[in-house]
């Protein structure tokens, strides 16, 4: 069931029961995926969109020598190859980070949804504009923030995005991503990411255990990353407005798992 997409669109305005049911009806064809698969490749001309129902993926580009830059993380509720719906071709790839499921929505079905239900069309447009705003924020993060600031900023962003679609538990969220993949997103080396995560733990800002992140001090983590959620454009129905400070003593944690 595409509950995450309904929650995602719900950030941008009210949806009627009929509109929610139309989204459910459009997302009935399900495909499973494993880790390290390409859902869509660079240069593809897909005829359908892939809505992530469970699991994590990323948008990325490869350099000629094989180095990878992750452009964004894709979470449940994201239509990961939406640009091709408008532009007809993918200028980047979508790769999976974990196992999970996607709903396959043919382009003609999505087009019908936008023509029949104007609020869905507006939510889709809003989502695309937020993606563009997020890409600008990632550019600033990579271009001007320190390694410590980048990492803190990304963790704040991920919690807020996951919380908006109901995928957090209090101040905890799943981060089943290797340090090598975090490095690909942050423009750092895995060794540097390991060192920064250790600093964040020792500062009491976060706890890491078994692929789960717990934010212990919201104000401290926000200040460390100079983070504000403005670029995510939280709507009236969104929970993105409510990051709060909680300082809870924690035992010394284990780190994020290393990539084999």
UniProtKB/TrEMBL annotation:
SMART domains noted in UniProt: HTH_CRP
Domain of life of the source: Bacteria
Source organism of this protein record: Microvirga tunisiensis
Keywords annotated in UniProt: DNA-binding, Transcription, Transcription regulation
UniProt cross-references to InterPro entries, sorted A to Z: cNMP-bd_dom (IPR000595), cNMP-bd_dom_sf (IPR018490), Env_Response_Regulators (IPR050397), HTH_CRP (IPR012318), RmlC-like_jellyroll (IPR014710), WH-like_DNA-bd_sf (IPR036388), WH_DNA-bd_sf (IPR036390)
Domain HTH crp-type: 145-219
PROSITE patterns named in the record: HTH_CRP_2
GO MF: DNA binding; DNA-binding transcription factor activity
Region (Disordered): 233-260
Gene Ontology, cellular component aspect: cytosol
Name the UniProt record assigns to this protein: Crp/Fnr family transcriptional regulator
């Amino acid at each position: 069931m595409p509950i995450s997409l309904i929650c995602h669109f719900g950030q941008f305005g009210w949806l009627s029961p009929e509109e929610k049911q139309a989204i459910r009806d459009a997302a009935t064809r399900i495909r499973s995926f494993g880790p390290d698969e390409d859902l869509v490749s660079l240069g593809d001309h897909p005829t359908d969109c892939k809505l992530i129902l469970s699991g994590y993926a990323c948008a990325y580009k490869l350099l000629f020598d094989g180095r990878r830059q992750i452009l964004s993380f894709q979470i449940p509720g994201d239509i990961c190859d939406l640009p091709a719906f408008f532009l007809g071709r993918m200028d980047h790839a979508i790769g999976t980070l974990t196992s999970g499921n996607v709903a396959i929505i043919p382009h003609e079905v999505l087009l019908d949804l936008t023509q029949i239900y104007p609020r869905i069309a507006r939510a889709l447009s809003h989502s695309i504009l937020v993606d563009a705003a997020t890409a600008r924020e990632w550019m600033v993060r990579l271009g001007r923030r320190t390694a410590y600031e980048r990492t803190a900023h990304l963790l704040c962003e991920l919690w807020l995005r996951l919380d908006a679609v109901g995928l957090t538990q209090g101040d905890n969220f799943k981060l089943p991503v290797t340090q090598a993949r975090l490095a690909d997103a942050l423009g750092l080396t895995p060794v540097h990411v390991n060192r920064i995560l250790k600093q964040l733990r020792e500062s009491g800002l976060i706890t890491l255990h078994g692929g789960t992140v717990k934010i212990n001090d919201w104000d401290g983590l926000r200040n460390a990353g100079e983070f504000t959620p403005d670029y995510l454009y939280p709507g009236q129905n969104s929970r993105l407005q409510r990051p709060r400070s909680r300082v809870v003593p924690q035992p010394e944690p284990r780190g994020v798992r290393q990539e084999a």
